Amino acid sequence: MPSSTLEVKMGDRQLTIGELAKSTGVATSALRYYEELGLIPAPVRVSGQRRYPESAVGLVGVILLLRDVGFSLRESKALLASRTQAVDGWRRLAQRKLANLDEQIAKAQTAKEAITHALHCPHDDIATCRNFASVIAARLAGQPLEEAHTDLPTSPPGARSGATSPGAAPSTRNMPRVV
What we know:
The protein contains 7 helices and 3 strands. By secondary structure, the protein is mostly helical. A hairpin with a 2-residue loop joins strand 2 and strand 3 (49-53).
């Protein structure tokens, strides 16, 4: 004979949005946003309250991991959806993201080298440095920083470029020419 009371099985435990937020460390507003974007499925509602299956904790964990490795929420949604649409769909998205990260790393490395060079420049006013002026001119001519800032020499932290011996002129090896 069927029971008239609601039976809840241990595997059917439902989490409120607050419990899901506490379990994942994600704000309730972010969880509602994930739901709005379709990253997590719309939960059932009990007396108007969202009730998520326990499996939502794992899904939010995947979203956090994807964010941590550089995927946008839009990219995360596409990657999660691609798992069920095409066997290698998620791999193509991951390979594209990896190429994008390689590009970002190269740009960050160039920026680091440029800043390191600036910190080791013997000029007290960076605007008087011919290398700085050369990079600015190249950027204004449309060159990306990677091309404008060719391998300028760097020195160990605390040292100044060209400070090999007292009175020695700074080395111009690998420095762009001033036009």
